[in-house]
Amino acid sequence: MNKFVSNIITALILIFAQGLFFNNINFLGSINPFVYVFFIAYFPLKNNRTFFIFCAFIYGLIIDIFSDTYAIHAAATLVISFLRPNLLKLFLG
């Protein structure tokens, strides 16, 4: 299977899992697990960075639609995707 197609399938599975299951789990009344960040953390570095930042923003907007939040996840995924290469260089060398 093509790597691009497998990344899309992974993203869709994580979106639906977050929207249907993990948004309903509350640890200690207020802590929710966010598994959708897994996609941003493990996206390949060799792809186009601008395309990745745009996809992360759209990805966050879709999570916001499921979560009924006002662009909080979109802003978070945008910042994470923008800082990710620099943080990987800083911590992993």
Describe the structure concisely.
The protein is mostly helical and 93 residues long. It is built from 4 helices and no strands.
What does the model show?
The chain has 93 residues and is mostly helical. It has one domain (3-92). It has helices at 3-20, 37-41, 49-67, 72-92. It is globular, with a radius of gyration of 14 Å.
Question: Could you name the key traits of this structure?
Answer:
93 residues; mainly alpha; 4 helices; globular
Q: Span between N and C termini? A: 31 Å
Q: Helices and strands, in N-to-C order? A: HHHH
Count of domains:
1
- The proportion of strand residues reads under 5%
List the helices and strands and how they pair.
Elements: H1 3-20, H2 37-41, H3 49-67, H4 72-92
